[in-house]
Structures are given as C-alpha cells and as structure tokens.
C-alpha cells in the first residue's frame, strides 16, 4: 500500500521528516536531489527517536594521515548515545549484524514522496 508523505520540494538534501503511517513511526531522509530513504524511527539500542538525531556524513580513512568526509547526508546519528546508521541500508556504521534498522521503499510519484508498505 502506498502512502504520500509530502511534496518532494518540502524535503531538501540533508533534511528529515518524521511521519506516522498506521502504527508505524518512520523517518524519511533526503540524501540528495530526488533521493529519499525511509527507516524505522526507533534506534535498535534503546529506542530513541532517530528523527531527533542529526543527519550528516562520516569520516573515512583509506590511508595513514588522510581523513575524508564521506557519505554526506546518508548517516543519521542517534540523539541519545550517538550510534550512527546508514539511512540507505539501515546498517550501523560500526560492525554489527544484530542492530540493523528496518528500511522502507520510497519513490517519487508526481512530485510527491511516497512510501510503499
Ligand atoms: S538509544 Fe540510540 S544509541 Fe542508544
């Protein structure tokens, strides 16, 4: 079933929007032009609302002495204890196979951001 969240021009790169769809609490993040991702609005650690966290990127290091800022607008940081998750995959940035966040399919249809549940 499809649910319209908002117009795509209401959510710019780096912005997020919390929505309730039925009994589900979801946060939609705009990671770039016409690129939207949706995850469950609950941190798998202790349940904080991820919609209260900051969206940004992360630092990566490929070689000694070189640090780059990467994955801009793709990382959401939990407001309680700082765990970071990739909004595209729902996976944490730290190695773990038990704390993945549920993701939802998001599309743009007629200038609207739409979630498929
Ligand atoms: S509740 Fe999110 S890191 Fe603890």
From TrEMBL:
SUPFAM superfamilies: ISP domain
Keyword Iron-sulfur: yes
Residues in Rieske domain copies: 3-115
Ranges in coiled-coil conformation: none
Record-linked InterPro entries: Rieske_2Fe-2S (IPR017941), Rieske_2Fe-2S_sf (IPR036922)
Any one Gene Ontology molecular-function term assigned to this protein's record: metal ion binding
Keywords: 2Fe-2S, Dioxygenase, Iron, Iron-sulfur, Metal-binding, Oxidoreductase
Gene3D superfamilies, alphabetized: Rieske [2Fe-2S] iron-sulphur domain
Pfam family, one: Rieske
Descriptive protein name: Ferredoxin subunit of nitrite reductase or a ring-hydroxylating dioxygenase
